[in-house]
Amino acid sequence: xxxxxxxxxxxxxxxxxxEVRAPERWLGYLIGPAGALLLNAVLGTYLNVYYTDVLGLxxxxxxxxxxxxxxxxxxxxxxxxxxxxxxxxxxxxxxxKARPWLLISAPLLTFTGLLLFLVPQASEDVQVVWxxxxxxxxxxxxxxxxxxxxxxxxPLSTRDTTARGKLSVFNQVATIxxxxxxxxxxxxxxxxPWWGVDKARWITVMSVLSILALPMTLLExxxxxxxxxxxxxxxxxxxxxxxxxxxxLKVLLTDxxxxxxxxxxxxxxxxxxxxxxxxxxxxxxxxxxxNDGVTMTMLSxxxxxxxxxxxxxxxxxxxxxxxxxxxxAGMVIMAxxxxxxxxxxxxxxxxxxxxxxxxxxxxxxxxxxxxxxxDVLDHIEWKVRFxxxxxxxSLYNTIAxxxxxxxxxxxxxxxxxxxxxxxxxxxxGALVAAQPESVQNVIVLCYVGLDIIACLxxxxxxxxxxxxxxxxxxxxxxxxxxxx
Length: 484
Fold this sequence. Notes:
It contains 16 helices and two strands. By secondary structure, it is mainly alpha-helical. It has a two-stranded antiparallel sheet. Helix 6 runs antiparallel to helix 13 (about 350-385) and helix 12 (about 325-345) runs antiparallel to helix 15. The model has no long low-confidence stretch (mean pLDDT about 90).
């Protein structure tokens, strides 16, 4: 696909240097992405609560709707991810092959984000249709376009592994610190107690977040640059967009390093999906009381404190000991932290200690994973003489979106099967929100129990990912080929 019209001062990147500098790191990889990532983070935590507690959809289709609908929707999302990956691999424009799609996604994120919450006061059938359409317009269309292009910015930014590693850290700060601080601190402490189960207030808050995503995504577009794409476009005699989908797919699915990346991501994404979905339920019904404004805030502050420390510590550790080694060690520490929480899931002090340990272990995977992924993409280019960025990222995102649907379906199915009770206001106007022990046990299992096994399995996989040992030599060979 050729997007030749995207040229001139209006569309040109504000980054003009050959090397990565501070404005690119801060505006293109930290502040810019924070808008869309914040919207997605809030949706990941609260959209299911909106469906269960505000709209009261737990019993629709005998409890089957919130089980089947997320899984079926993610099948569509997985297909659109594959299509989008192929589109990116075949995109040619003066702005690169992924960046133009950041520009296109900006207004789409705002429009579809609004639709998610503007569910009309109508019959159950009308609401179900609206929810299915709005959900897929956001996740299978708008966010797929954004997420695919956003995630490729680090791998396509530069071949300088040190600069790329720093960009990976900044990129994850946008995900973990910016969205995490607001989603995990401001919302449970201020927003959740205020909006309760009031639909109008939910719409107000989510409208602000949806609108905010537009200018910030544009900021990301203008302060990123695809140096590797420009390098490839300067040597059109090398293999590239003419390579078939089937050949690219075979290359990715037969490379041992890429399979390990995907396996690691599969395990951690499934576990994280169940944990994230259950977190607010865990704070509301197991560790604290409904929207008390304290429990989730404490869990986020104490448990999330290591993420701020890690901003300064993780990359020096990765440079000294290797990205793979610190990630393996981190996953083992995460398993230990989860085990501590599982021993006494209703004891605030023990849970806070366990969460602190767990998040200490999550630092390497959170901050350097994209740098490892970029190393694998360079390794594949060295091996087969063409890049597979778009398809590699589409498979990566396909795993992510599929498991989000699967984990949502599993979690909602467990809630329904264990007799989840929708919060309600009694005759005196008091909010009644309590769950039977069966529901509480399901929530505990999803929040901390499954993480123990998942972290140990992920550590075993990443142990064999030794792509770093000769990546510098391979990158030098790639550059030498391009200069011939």
